[in-house]
């Protein structure tokens, strides 16, 4: 018998294969999302593609480009008389919407081009399209449940698709679809425990009254406390939600979660009235289902409006219709998105769902999906650029809370803080690929196709971007300075 030391001399040891490394190396399909043209001021398409390869280990198969940003369109659309974004002009590395499409289309690494849209259209100032909360106050973003909004978004996307196909020329088959950013559709607010969700405009109210099971439901929420208080709490600086509400959640589950979180204390003596709490929970479930279906049908109509005529014009698109894609937060229920993730697994209206993966077990079994590599998906990114648009808008500087802020404070506190929050939400680490849900295979239930990496401003780029913004002093600040 050889001794242990003799055996070790005869053996060539091999390092064990690392499961995490194998999972990372299996990720071959990634898309590059560019959420705002500001990113393209500092890095060219080629630089972004190479940066993606350096970060993720693969070249991006495709790219996602925006058609609108918070302050306007990225292209001219004379028929609709909508404002063009201040960020649509050529500056730095950014060559404009059409030339950027052409540049990515001509790149051999890029085989797929997608367009993305933020459907809130905060630059549209038509009151009749704006979201309205439960007490009747409106916010300057459009309600996607309004049929006129759906027509408007369809027209914007149809024009953007036309411009894209022309810009791609012989590469037109690289156009693969449209992504709707469904992260923050329904704004919400709170004051002294009172929750104010949106939207309850005329179109939404009519929808709730005709949904089937919800006639008179809205009245149940026009009181305090109401069913929302079971799962939403006023934290003073925002709303603390319970998101663990999948389609199969029960009234007992809801009441249990509310007790566990301490939300139920707001009901006072009613917190021990189980029949009353169950009634509240039933109303809550009806509301969640109705809002989900309203949002789902709204997007179905927007996509139909956007893609009209493509199949008739092109045999290619008749055989390979553009994909209808939603970008969501990776939670069971997104309160600001109005959608339950698992309920979309049964939807026939969308071809793909993108969301940030919060767990390897959070996946869809029927609908293809991709993991979006940014925490809360685009939420913090959208919040930063919305703050930028508000800061440079004379109207919002005069009519919103930032009217009290000096221009320099807006830059150094509000915008810088939002920038750092967005940067801190990045999930751009190759190791993160190892903990994503399984890729789609014959053996796996998961339908994951790949991942989406996000290009955003670095700390230095963001600081330079903020410094270059023209933020004028509001009239109130100017008066205060004179009086001081």
Q: Which runs of at least 5 residues are low in confidence (pLDDT < 50)? A: none
Compute the gyration radius: what is it? Answer: 24 Å
| Largest sheet features | 8 strands, parallel, barrel
Give the integer mean of the pLDDT values: 93
Write the CATH fold name of the domain at 30-130 and 140-187 and 294-466. TIM Barrel
Structural class: alpha/beta
Relative strand content? 15-25%
Architecture of the domain at 30-130 and 140-187 and 294-466, CATH level 2?
A: Alpha-Beta Barrel
Number of helices: 16
What's the arrangement of strands in the largest beta sheet? 1-2-5-8-13-16-17-18
Q: Report the principal-axis shape.
A: globular
List how many beta strands DSSP finds. 18
**Helix percentage range:** 25-40%
User: What is the CA-CA span between the terminal residues?
Assistant: 96 Å
- Regarding CATH, which class of the domain at 30-130 and 140-187 and 294-466? Alpha Beta
């Amino acid at each position: 018998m050889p001794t242990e030391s003799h055996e070790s001399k005869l053996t060539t040891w091999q390092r064990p294969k690392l499961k995490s490394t194998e999972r990372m190396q299996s990720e071959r399909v990634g898309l590059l999302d560019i959420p705002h043209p500001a990113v393209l001021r500092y890095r060219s398409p080629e630089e972004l593609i190479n940066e993606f390869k350096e970060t993720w280990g693969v070249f991006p198969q495709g790219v996602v480009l925006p058609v609108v940003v918070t302050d306007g369109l990225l292209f001219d659309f004379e028929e609709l008389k909508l404002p063009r974004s201040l960020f649509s002009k050529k500056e730095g590395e950014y060559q404009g919407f059409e030339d950027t499409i052409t540049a990515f289309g001509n790149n051999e690494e890029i085989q797929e081009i997608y367009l993305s849209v933020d459907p809130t259209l905060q630059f549209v100032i038509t009151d009749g399209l704006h979201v309205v909360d439960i007490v009747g106050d409106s916010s300057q973003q459009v309600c996607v449940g309004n049929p006129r909004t759906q027509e408007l978004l369809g027209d914007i996307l149809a024009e953007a698709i036309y411009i894209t196909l022309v810009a791609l020329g012989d590469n037109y088959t690289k156009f693969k679809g449209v992504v709707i950013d469904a992260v923050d559709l329904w704004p919400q607010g709170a004051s002294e425990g009172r929750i104010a969700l949106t939207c309850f405009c005329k179109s939404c109210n009519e929808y709730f009254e005709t949904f089937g099971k919800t006639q008179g439901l809205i009245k149940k929420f026009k009181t305090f406390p109401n069913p929302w208080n079971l799962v939403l709490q006023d934290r003073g600086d925002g709303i603390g939600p319970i998101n663990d509400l999948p389609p199969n959640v029960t009234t007992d589950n809801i009441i249990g979660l509310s007790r566990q979180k301490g939300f139920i204390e707001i009901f006072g003596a009613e917190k021990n009235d189980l029949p009353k709490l169950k009634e509240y929970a039933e109303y809550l479930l009806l509301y969640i289902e109705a809002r989900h279906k309203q949002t789902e049908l709204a997007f179905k109509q927007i996509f139909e409006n956007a893609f009209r005529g493509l199949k008739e014009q092109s045999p290619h698109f008749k055989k390979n219709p553009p994909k209808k894609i939603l970008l969501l937060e990776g939670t069971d229920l997104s309160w600001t998105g109005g959608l339950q993730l698992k309920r979309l697994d049964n939807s026939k209206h969308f071809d793909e769902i993108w969301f940030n993966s919060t767990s390897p077990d959070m996946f869809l079994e029927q609908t293809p999906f991709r993991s979006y590599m940014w925490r809360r998906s685009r939420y913090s990114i959208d919040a930063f650029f919305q703050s930028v648009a508000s800061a440079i808008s004379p109207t919002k500087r005069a009519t919103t809370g930032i009217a009290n802020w000096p221009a320099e404070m807006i830059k150094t506190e509000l915008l810088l803080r939002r920038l750092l929050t967005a940067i801190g939400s990045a999930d751009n680490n190759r190791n993160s690929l190892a903990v994503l849900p399984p890729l789609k295979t014959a053996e796996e239930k998961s339908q994951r196709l790949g991942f989406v990496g996000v290009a955003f401003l670095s700390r230095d780029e963001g600081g330079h971007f903020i410094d270059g913004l023209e933020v004028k002093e509001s009239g109130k600040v100017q008066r205060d300075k004179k009086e001081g």
